[in-house]
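Q: Please design a sequence for this.
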């Protein structure tokens, strides 16, 4: 199961017209990388939950045939349900007799899922969470693991004390047995790390850590800054300029560390550094922008543009709406 129902608020304004997993990375919807990863790992029947602008994800993936898998969709139509609630809502689409994988739909990774499955089976686990050391002390929740590899709890990022050994964080990839549904609240919002796994641990069930190898890559696109940094990294050049389809850039425009989506026009003598430019945007000549995301202002109605401007979340300049980061 791929989790793809979130609002993507930290990627605002790029998510005004699409959910985070449909945001393009090197010209492809982000979620396509997760689908291909799962298929390579042996998962050929997928369930994807949808809520916010889910039609964009369905348009990108269809029935899964193009990716060598079959995809069913779980629609959270009334309200978003959280990671635990998403599983409960989709339980009839999941095989009630087989081990299954749950993964966030905003990741690109090379983690060896078969190695994690071997850990899961060797430990006779109810749930196995794939973890990585938080080498850069980013604000991820901390997973507390004992000497046997069993997970004992979860703590906020503030619980970390420098300069001790880097804490472990949860990658958003987990392997579960169907019995996990015994611990998922029915028909309501819930999260696995706060409402499901603590209940299972308290009941004596084995919730296990599999720590990914150092060379296994894991990229999570949760903020504008991460989106830009990781796009350049994956392009193989920290100063990369990444072009979508049908982009027109004036010869004397200067761009560095920039991502242009489709149908973007950059006018003469424009200077862009660390800028993300959304579909259909025209940057007028002589514009200078740095550390900003730019989308068409018409993606927001007038009242929302005024509200976001008043709250300091962005500003309209001509036909564009600009958010600095």
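A: Design:
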């Amino acid at each position: 199961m791929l989790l793809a129902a979130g609002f993507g608020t930290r990627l605002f304004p790029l998510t005004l017209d699409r959910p985070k997993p449909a945001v393009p990375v090197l010209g492809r919807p982000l979620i396509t990388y997760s689908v291909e990863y799962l298929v390579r790992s042996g998962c050929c029947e997928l369930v994807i939950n949808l809520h916010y602008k889910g039609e964009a994800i369905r348009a990108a993936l269809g029935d899964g045939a193009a990716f060598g898998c079959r995809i069913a969709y779980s629609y959270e139509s009334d309200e978003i349900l959280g990671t635990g609630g998403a599983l409960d809502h989709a339980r009839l689409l999941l095989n009630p007799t087989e081990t299954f994988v749950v993964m966030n739909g905003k990741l690109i990774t090379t983690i060896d899922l078969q190695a994690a499955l071997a850990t899961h089976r060797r430990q006779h686990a109810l749930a196995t969470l794939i973890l990585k050391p938080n080498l850069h002390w980013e604000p991820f929740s901390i997973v507390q693991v004992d000497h046997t590899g069993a997970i004992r709890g979860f703590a906020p990022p503030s619980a970390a004390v420098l300069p001790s050994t880097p804490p472990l964080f949860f990658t958003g990839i987990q392997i579960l047995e169907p019995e996990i549904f015994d611990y998922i609240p029915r028909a309501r919002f819930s999260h696995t790390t706060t409402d499901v796994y603590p209940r299972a641990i308290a009941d004596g069930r084995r919730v296990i850590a599999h720590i990914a190898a150092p060379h296994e890559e894991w990229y999570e696109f949760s903020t504008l800054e991460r989106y830009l940094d990781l796009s350049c990294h994956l392009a193989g050049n920290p100063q990369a300029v990444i072009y979508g389809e049908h982009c027109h850039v004036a010869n004397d425009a200067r761009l560095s560390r920039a991502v242009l989506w489709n149908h973007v026009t950059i006018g003469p003598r424009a200077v862009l550094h660390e800028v993300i430019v959304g579909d259909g945007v025209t940057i007028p000549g002589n514009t200078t922008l740095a550390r900003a995301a730019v989308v068409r202002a018409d993606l927001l109605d007038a009242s929302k543009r005024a509200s976001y401007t008043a709250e300091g979340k962005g500003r309209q300049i001509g036909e564009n709406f600009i958010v600095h980061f």
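Q: Thanks. Anything notable?
A: The chain is about 20% helix and 30% strand. The chain has two domains: 2-220, 224-324.
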